[in-house]
Amino acid sequence: MYLPQLRMPFEQIVERTLAAESCGFDSVWLMDHLWAPAAPEVDTLEGWTLAAALAVQTSEIRIGHLTTCDPFRHPAVLAKMAATIDTLSGGRLELGIGWGSVPDELAAFGITTAPGPRRAARLRESLEIIERMFGGEPFDYDGDHFTLRGAIGRPTPIQDHLPIHVGGGGTKLTMPIVRDHADWWNCPGYAYERLDELRPLAGDARVSVQHAIGLAPGSAARDEVTALVHRRFGVWGGVIAGTAPEIVDALRTDIDRGVEGFVLQFHDFGVPETLDRFAGEVLGALR
Predict the structure, then answer these.
(1) What pLDDT, in 10s, does the model give residues 124-167?
(2) Would the pLDDT of 100 be above 90?
(3) What domains are defined for the chain?
(4) What pLDDT band is residue 38 in, cutting at 50, 70 and 90?
(5) Close Cβ partners of 180 (under 8 Å, ≥ 6 residues apart)
(6) Average pLDDT, the chain
(7) How many Å apart are CA 25 and CA 34, to the nearest integer?
(8) CA spacing 20 to 30 A to 7: which of 34, 204, 258, 279?
């Protein structure tokens, strides 16, 4: 379940995360922004401190971000944060990361005005440093963006290998990083129509896709729910709407194309009743 933490109090975020856990969802995904894209006036809780809070309020569901904005943090700090949350959660962190796709946000907060190629190069160095921090042994690092001397990351993550997810659809900047560093390539909704074209560029990475889901409780509500999900999320692409059998058929088509994971945002932002219906009528059929 994708649960961007905007227009929701903490108690509601916990409620929906626990509902997803109870229904059998594998993971919950937060966003990592200093303001909500296209809605800067809306309250948005910080993504990594929120993940720490969810880690100690849940017991089974995995927790990640799509995607962590690399320019926000020094990679050694991010590695320390990731190892800490993996420890708090008992080994349930998924590290989703990207090179920062909202230039206006980065400029507004004085973080960077570097162009895309420069930020992508920084992400590549960040991932190299994070990997060494997770090793738990002292190391030096010399790069164009970072220089470290005698750095060490302790504690190390509980997981023997903490999964790395890289999101995006750029053939020149993002996909080479996916190929070289990612366990998972997350195909965002805006790149979904190019899934088959991009998949060979991901190397050995497993594939997940993002979808906005409009789950109608029956045929009578189909048009209303379809209109709602397109109004709320249509600009992002990858929308699937209809009754449970229609959604099952659409997701099965993705599975046949090699997709192994789905990151889903629901038309009503994942109220427990919708998650329960999805689990019973869609997850049950797919599994």
Answers:
(1) 999 999 999 999 999 999 999 999 999 999 999 999 999 999 99
(2) no
(3) 1-162 (3.20.20.30)
(4) confident
(5) 124, 203
(6) 96
(7) 27
(8) 279
The full 3-state SS of 152-187, as one line of letters, equals CCCCCCCCCCCCEEEECCCCCCHHHHHHHHCCEEEE
Rg (CA), the chain: 19
Q: Hunting for tokens 């809605």 — which residue is that? A: 39
Q: Which two tokens stand for residue 109?
A: 């907060």
How far CA 11 is from CA of 77, 251, 267, in Å, comes to 28, 31, 20
pLDDT tens profile 256-271:
999 999 999 999 999 9
Burial label for 175, CB within 10 Å (0-12, 13-18, 19+), is: buried
**Rounded to an integer, what distance in angstroms lies between the CA atom of residue 75 and that of residue 39?**
28
pLDDT reported for residue 228: 93
